[in-house]
Amino acid sequence: MTIPDTHDVVEPLAIAGGTGVVSLTGIPARRDEPPIHTKAKDENIRVSPAVLDAAGKDGEELLRSLRTSSSGLTQAEADERARTTGPNEVAQERRQGWAGRLLKIIRNPLVVLLAILSSISFATGDARAGIVMACMVVLSVALRFLQEARAGAAAAKLKAMIHVTATVVRDGDAREMPLRDLVPGDIIKLSAGDMIPGDVRVISSKDLFVNQGSLTGESLPVEKFHDPEIKVVSAPTELTNICFMGTSVQSGTATAVIVVTGVHTYLGSMAGSITEEATPTSFDQGLSRFTWLMIRLMAVMVPLVFLINGFTKHDWKAAFFFAMAVAVGLTPEMLPMIVSVCLSKGALAMSRKKVIVKHLNAIQNFGGMDVLCTDKTGTLTEDRVVLQRHCNVAGRETDEVLLDGYLISHFQTGLKNLLDRAILDSPDFHQQVLIEKHKKLDEIPFDFTRRMMSVLVENPDGKAILLTKGAPEEVFHQCSHFELDGKLSPMDPDLMKGLREEYESLSNDGFRVLAVATKELSGMKVCSKDDERDLVLKGYVAFLDPPKKSAALAIEALHKHGVAVKLLTGDNQLISRKVCGDVGLSADPMVLGADVEKMSDPELAKTAERTTLFARLSPSHKQRIVRVLRGKGHVVGFMGDGINDAPALRAADIAISVDTATDIAKESADLILLEKDLMVLEGGVIEGRKVFANILKYIRMGASSNFGNMFSVLGASAFLPFIPMAPIQVLTNNLLYDFSQVPIPTDAVDEEQVARPRPWNIGEIKRFILFIGPISSIFDYTTFFVMLWLFECWDPSRAPVFQTGWFVESLMTQTLIIHVIRTNKIPFIQSRASWPLTVTTLSIMAIGAWLPYSPLASSLGLVHLPHLYWPILMMTLLGYTGLTQAIKVWLLRRKWI
């Protein structure tokens, strides 16, 4: 059977629902014995009780409980069970159609509100207002829909399901069958390269090594046995006689019985957690809170304006249209469009850096991220085992040990494992000519009793040399001497302690260590296990999955920008500690999965905030850590590439994966890195913060302006004998102001605004509204005073003069003030807006001054203004700008915004 690499094999298993707890096709798990094999308490991601039960049974008892035998099921029995269990598949997640994606975008509260106001405007005969709002709705929705559709198409790249088979015993004969046709009780034959077709219990094995990296993140394969499990383990994948769906056989052979299939497998339960509805991100929550804040403000304001004008002017129709116009003016109708354009601009910038943005909101979340949790294998490391050290017994590098190790790996005839390939691929070896001068005479294969292997070679001098490598503790027992600097010394107890400390220091540094020893067998052409005695210890070869070259630089850059990086891995603590040291992360304190199991959510949240390294984690542990960090108010990113990372990716505010990841991980991701260079993370964070800064400019502008207008409109409605501004004037003012804000996504962002994470803070926005908003009302009332007393507008016949004066002042102050709000510095001097925003500001202010004298004036109800009005307006603009700048600086010094 030919099976692709594990990362490809899992592809047809992509994503599905499932609980992970199963009643087996009429073969119930025994309930009279509590499962004692695992302490894991995963709620959504868990192994079936039937699998735990099977781990503790001996072979005959197990086959009886599954109603099968060593000769397998009959075809009739298999067909009957298939009707109950269904196909052995973990179905792929249903991809949302265009209608579903469109509906999701339209459900935005602001889009709904604008659509309602547009409909009311059309229904009441105000077509101009209706058309304006309808255009804003269509443009905003279309921008977001098209961008997300394009990004989704680029990111998906979903391949057709791979046709994978397994060797199954049916009716007493072994045959190849598609994985989807397998059922619980089937007897399967496993060999190197085979995919595990379900959650299976091994019933016989020989040197069986299984690659569980796709589930656990571990680089090295683990050995599986057929004996009943008797010890308690902390994670299901540590069960030594159970192999899980989605993993593959690295080496060896075995016979196993399938316990559960499809969605009932451990992988199936994991996929179930992936397809749960994703929780709203901090961006979604913040935008929603702001939207509802504005809607509540409008819900109070509009009825008050309607009632006050109705009772004081006794013209309820005019009051209604004015209230409707005020509702449109208070609605931040440009927000969906500004957000969409800002996010689309950010997505395009990221695409130039070889990053696919699948979900637009992810851009801002990237900028707001203050905690990045990352898996180790394939993200921080290269997901390959390399030879890192070849040293003598004192820890000094030596090519002699490398040559001996190379000869053993080169001449051995068994299946070359990852460690053998790492030695053979070592760039440090430059003595190929020496290999040609050696001749293989015999070999002693590896076995798991001795935990070593040997080859007998003839060296260039014609001497027969036995070369041995294996587990250090086993090789030590077979050595009588060690060699250091060409001198032989006996392995006496005092020296043994120092020798052990040397290789243990390598192990503690996270290396996988093998000892290398030799023995001269003069005149011999064959060898046996009895010859593996009185060896001379030469040194060690040590292996590691190396970190990516850009990992340390990327982590340092993220730290400088206020992002804490935490390592969440399923790998062991020694290797994880080593990787942390290599990439510049603190490994103390370290928390293991077993510790996570014992903690309540509040305890875990407190621990997670101060801990950088988490090891031996299950997928649900990772997911839980991400959730509790989010619960503490952090904006959490997660970067991973394996099946075991998908639940945590789904739970994070920002999910990041790499192009070489499994499809499940890529399906769960918001961003996919197409290149191995992790420095793109820094660029993404900066880009996200720029996006948020520009969105925040519009939010601050619109919210403070609306809050100030509330006081101005309410006051003017109460004491004026006429409507403060004609409805058509309100709508025109609003349209021109909105147009002036269109270039905000192009605006430059000050460096200090992207230096630290900027998560949504509705309290900060409220403070800005409360202090900045009323400033506009102060100058509105000064304009009222000038128009009423200086230009004698108390007379209703001069109402058009008052309305024109307020129209021009309101438009110019709102348009100009964005230049103060957009920066924390002194506007125009220390920080300048982008040229499109500057040009638009000047253009709209010029149009505002021109309209009272234009051919459109009569249709808009505008009239010529007195000459004295214009210098007073200039003083108003200067006073408004200066006071707003002063209040802004005061708020910044108090760190209230």
Outline the structure in words:
It is a single chain. The longest helix is centred in the C-terminal third of the chain and has 40 residues, at 680-719. It contains 33 helices and 23 strands. Mean pLDDT is 81; it is low at 1-44 and 154-162. The two termini are 64 Å apart. Strand 11 (439-447) and strand 12 form a beta hairpin. The strands form 3 sheets. The protein has an 8-stranded mixed β-sheet, with helices on both faces. Strands 10, 11, 12, 13, 14, 15, 16 and 17 form an 8-stranded mixed β-sheet that branches. Strands 1, 2, 3, 4, 5, 6 and 7 form a 7-stranded antiparallel β-sheet that branches. The chain has 897 residues and is an alpha/beta fold.
What attributes does this structure have?
about 900 residues; alpha/beta; eight-stranded mixed sheet; disordered N terminus
